Amino acid sequence: MNDARRRRRGRLGLVSVVSAMSLLLSSCFLGTAAGPIRQGELAGPVADVKSMDGLKISIGSKNFSENIILGKMAVSLLASAGADVTDLTNIPGSAAARQAQLEGQIEAMWEYTGTGWITYLGHTDPIPDEQKQYVAVRDEDLEKNDLVWLPPAPMNNTYGFAITPEVKKRFGITKLSEIQKLPVKERTFCVESEFTNRPDGLPGMLKTYDIPLGRNGVPQSNLKTYQTGAVYSATAKGECNFGEVFTTDGRIVALDLTVLEDDRSYFPKYNVSLVVNEDILEDYPQIEELFAPVTEKLTDEVLLKLNAQVDVEGKEPVDVAFDWLKKEGFVK
């Protein structure tokens, strides 16, 4: 780590004193997600990655299924490469997880480009091109926070709106732009309460698609708010015509929902990338080589199936993650 960045780390340490209460709060929640660490022997395209014997590293994740599964993959891969890994997955909330990484309590975590750009770095307008969005967040987070965003996965866990087979048959629509053609009474939405206020949420989406909030567009009475998981079942039960979803959520497949095309590219790109503290990566550059072929395999289709194994079939994330690594030939 160069001197300038070491100084920035020093300044960050001073900032952490000021924010001691929030750090203490987040620290209280930092514990393992329970269960064993599953590891094997590196195989296939990562078989020749240099051993990481001597590396002590803490891996974090947020507390929703997809991020926990990905966190468990990182734990298994690094342990299989010889690292001494502390499992700190399942941290409640993006803010606490991010704070933990900024303070060095965790040293690697899978993160989403859109979250990094808008939520962490404070930008209001997403960059429509996936690669340009990645490069922008990569460069700024390295410069400001000494965090390295490894090359992202093809998967894009962004927001979307899903419909049931019955709604699809009744209206014959496949794109968000076609909602405008429907009668006002049919423009009904099931959403999380946060989504009605987010900078990348419902108001901006409706504006992009020329549908005003209000009497002649989407009246307040057409909006029903739920907790995250409840939106899926409410949509499937027909309590609204359009349900807010995350596009790699396994319940989309399980409930036979169809995600409408975002044909005006409103929603930000949320490609996932392993974010590693720069000093760790400088000492162990083979981490990038270890994760590159794994990350390339993480498509929307793969995550939909893995997430469904946890959210629908009730499997443990640690088993889903390790079994997939083994199936794909990364460990044996």
Largest sheet, spatial ordering of strands: 2-1-3-10-4
Strand content: 5-15%
Number of strands: 10
The shape, in one word, is: globular
Distance between the termini: 35 Å
Order of helices and strands: HHEHEHEHHEEHEHEHEHEEHHHH
Helix content: 40-55%
Description of the molecule:
- With 332 residues, the chain is of the alpha/beta class.
- It has helices at residues 3-18, 20-28, 65-80, 94-102, 113-120, 130-145, 165-171, 202-208, 228-236, 251-254, 278-283, 286-296, 300-311, 317-327; strands spanning 56-62, 84-91, 108-112, 147-149, 159-163, 189-192, 223-226, 242-246, 258-259, 272-277.
- A five-stranded mixed β-sheet has the order 2-1-3-10-4. Strands 7-6-8-5-9 form a five-stranded mixed β-sheet.
- Helix 8 links the parallel strand 6 and strand 7.
